[in-house]
Amino acid sequence: MVFDPAFHHRKSIRLKGYDYSQAGGYYVTIITQGRECMFGKIVNREMVSNEAGRMIEAVWKSLSERFPNVELHIFQVMPNHFHGIIFIFRNPVGAGLVPALGLVPALGLVPAQGLVPAHPSRATTRVAPTLGKIIGAFKSITTNEYIHGVKQCGWPSFAGKLWQRSYYEHIIRNQSDYEHIANYIAINPAKWDFDEENPPAR
Q: Distance from CA of residue 140 to its chain's centroid?
């Protein structure tokens, strides 16, 4: 499947019967409810995060500690959404410990320069979480932290939910796919004026 940014606005493309806890790479996009810009703004084609945006980044980075089976690659907080590449790996039954990065070449993937996971030699025997569980935890933690920010720091409140109910994901197929997506994430702030998630001025 060729990467297409337009898929953000399609119905979920999750594959029926696919095991999202299996070793693999995923590109995810999570959007705020109503596309409200809660996390900062784009200035001179660069993302300038506010306190809430910095919180979103910190929670994402903490996922690898909460889920040892996870490696986080390039990500980007945007004013009203979040992009990230995440790898999930697990230890096959009876196979012994498997380094996290060791599973990447098996997929034909080599992290682009500057995107090497933070713990390339880490190994684990824990059962891998599903992608849904990881994203669910991310959304729950960030929502609770944001509510705390509203109460304690005067952050703008949100109506109903911080995030849209679901999220979008794309299974990374190969090295070319990875590089295409990583590049899209890296230049996303510079493309904000043309981003379909950029709400019209009110």
A: 14
**Sign of the dihedral defined by the CA atoms of residues 61, 64, 67, 73, in that order:** positive
Q: How far apart are CA 159 and CA 149, in angstroms?
A: 15
Residue 187 has pLDDT above 70, yes or no: yes
Record the tokens describing residue 38, joined without a space.
């809660």
Structural domains in the chain?
Answer: 5-193 (3.30.70.1290)
Q: Provide the whole-model pTM.
A: 0.75
Best CA proximity match to 22, nearest among 94, 117, 172, 128: 128
pLDDT band of residue 68 (cuts 50, 70, 90) is confident
Question: Which stretches within the chain are classed as H helix?
Answer: 51-66, 103-106, 131-153, 175-187
Nearest to 135 by CA among 36, 7, 6, 21: 21
What confidence score (pLDDT) does residue 117 get? 42
